[in-house]
TrEMBL record:
Lineage: Eukaryota, Metazoa, Chordata, Craniata, Vertebrata
Presence of the UniProt keyword Transit peptide in the record: yes
UniProt subunit comment: Homotrimer.
Compartments in which it is found: Mitochondrion matrix
An individual GO BP term: fatty acid beta-oxidation
Protein name: Enoyl-CoA delta isomerase 1, mitochondrial
GO terms of molecular function: delta(3)-delta(2)-enoyl-CoA isomerase activity
PROSITE patterns (alphabetical): ENOYL_COA_HYDRATASE
Length: 304
């Protein structure tokens, strides 16, 4: 699967690399995509995804930097996808570390305002972008490590569990899990499958039905994350871990990853349009819109 994905990515992006990258120092290239938000909404250009590629190690650090909570808006998803495509195309890049620039938050998950009060067409476009990012991350041929340096509910948890390995900051105040039912919404089958593939069926069933957010120690206990380290050591540990993964012969690791993940990816690929239609019909229901409204109001009230 990863190979197939990679091939199609190579076709999509061939020739586009130099458009976005700038050399900042000898072995390290860093880039952002300032034009995405601006061209979509005629808004001011500010990048939400920072990529720092170290060609001496073959490791790219992809940092979400979308205050206040790194919610996955359409702009963030689009920029994230392009950055991953670009890295997938780069033969010098073998590993991606995903992290956040925000204190205490990895990602608040999908941007609820993209699903509340929006047209069916907008919801369809948004959902397609969510699918696309998951396909790229879960199906990546590169080694992917999530450096979870803060809370990571719902779509944030999906991003982390789509990586090959998860290192989380050892802070019981940080929560991670698929809490969709708490919002009155239902995580789709590919969110569920990613969770099942990570923690097994029983823990996934409890987690999904109850919409559980696990504290960092509990997340380690149920296998939702692989390792806890002090907050200031999350990124360094991710780099050390990545070096170990990159020492494995790459073709053997890639084929093994593809073998493990292909059935899950194929399931979405063969039901992609139906999944979009299902999402749009569900999310635009009056009762679901009401639940989202109440949840958003609850978030705002918490602050006061
Ligand atoms: C078929 C349908 C399937 C759909 C699958 C859905 C997947 C999802 O990912 S749905 C999103 C689920 N996410 C959450 O439930 C997280 C909600 N947020 C939080 O719990 C907290 O914000 C936090 C723990 C992530 C951070 O807490 P804190 O630092 O205290 O920040 P605030 O709560 O004050 O939030 C600041 C600001 O951001 C807004 N906001 C938070 N999360 C989201 C979000 N996911 N989408 C959009 N906006 C979000 C929040 O409302 C505040 O806004 P203002 O009051 O305007 O400042």
């Amino acid at each position: 699967m990863a190979g197939i994905l990679q091939q199609s990515l190579r076709c999509t992006l061939s020739g586009g690399r130099s458009l976005f990258s700038t050399l900042t120092r000898d072995a390290t290239r860093s880039w952002t995509l300032p034009g995405i938000a601006a061209s979509r909404r005629n808004a001011s250009a500010s990048s939400k995804i920072q990529v720092e590629m170290d060609s001496s190690t073959g490791i790219a650090v992809v940092t979400m930097q979308s205050p206040p909570v790194n919610s996955l808006s359409l702009d963030v998803l689009t920029e994230f996808c392009i950055s991953l495509e670009k890295l997938e195309m780069d033969r010098g890049c073998q590993g991606v570390i995903l992290t956040s620039s925000l204190p205490k938050i990895f990602s608040a998950g999908l941007d609820i305002t993209e699903m509340y009060g929006k047209s069916p067409e907008h919801c369809a476009e948004f959902w397609k972008a969510v699918q696309e990012l998951w396909l790229k991350l879960y199906g990546s041929s590169m080694v992917t490590v999530a450096a979870v340096n803060g809370s990571s509910p719902a779509g944030g948890c999906l991003m982390a569990t789509s990586c090959d390995y998860r290192i989380m900051a050892d802070n019981p105040k940080y929560g991670i899990g698929l809490n969709e039912t708490q919002l009155g919404i239902v995580a789709p089958f590919w969110f569920r499958d990613t969770m099942v593939n990570t923690v097994g069926n029983r823990v996934a069933e409890l987690s999904l039905q109850l919409g559980l957010l696990y504290s960092a120690p509990d997340a380690l206990r149920v296998g939702l994350v692989d390792q806890l380290v002090p907050e200031q050591e999350v990124l360094r540990t991710a780099k050390d871990t990545m070096a170990k993964w990159l020492a494995i012969p790459d073709h053997a690791r890639q084929i093994t990853k593809s073998m493990m993940r292909k059935p899950t990816i194929d399931k979405l690929l063969s039901h992609r349009e139906a999944d979009i239609a299902n999402f749009v019909s569900f999310i635009t229901k009056d009762s679901i819109q009401k639940s989202l409204k109440m949840y958003l109001e609850g978030l705002k009230k918490r602050k006061n």
